[in-house]
User: Fold ABC-type polar-amino-acid transporter from Brachybacterium ginsengisoli.
Amino acid sequence: MTQTTPESESAAPTARRPLVELQNVNKHFGSFQALTDIDLTIPEGQVAIVIGPSGSGKSTLCRTINRLETIDEGGRILIDGKVLPEEGRALATLRAEVGMVFQSFNLFAHKSILENVTVGPIKVKGIKKAQAEKEAMELLERVGVAQQAKKMPAQLSGGQQQRVAIARALAMKPKVMLFDEPTSALDPEMVQEVLDVMVQLAREGMTMVVVTHEMGFARKAGDRVIFMDAGRVLEDTDPESFFTAPQHERAKNFLGKIL
Ligand code: ADP
Ligand code: MG
Assistant:
């Protein structure tokens, strides 16, 4: 929480190093094509908002970036310049560089809050328990749930659980964070506390891909809006242009429904 440069205030594309690159990414589920010809480069420090109707491929996009889904032959995904390997130890290492936060918080139900945050660093990165716990407590402090460290996930509110999920992802020291509709399963009064944590992360310069329909967040923290429809990127522009002057009929329709 030391760096205060608001990265989000610059919408200009920069010469910053590309952290996530999708090149000619296509994804079929059987004969159904969920992603078509996706080419995207997310530079370091950018907050990219992914928006689009249900079924447009937003989750699939996130899941391919994290190799939770394979992609069709011919395409490539690079994380910090390295091609995502198919499997094995190299995949685990690279995947640790990509933190993911899901709509359903997905905490380990039978582990305490603290253990939820330490298990990855201990098991995947071989960090000593004491060190992992120290870092985990700092992270829980950052997201405002340090008081709950000894509790079990079910004892926390949805907003608290989602903040723990963010801390858990951050504990792996990822280079990029993916958020797939992180607030859409929350009661309305808990949405803001999670968005506040995400805004703070963005301000600290974290590279983020965020699937969300939260316009306020997109405008405040987003550098870029990627509008998807039927598996394609239809618009890719800055938030202000997207929300005030969407180019495609489908984008206009979509905005008409959610605003
Ligand atoms: P979004 O997140 O934008 O709502 P998804 O990425 O979840 O969309 O899904 C895009 C399309 O791919 C949808 O039509 C969905 O039904 C289909 N799809 C997603 N995952 C699978 C799967 N494992 N098997 C078959 N079809 C899938
Ligand atoms: Mg989805």
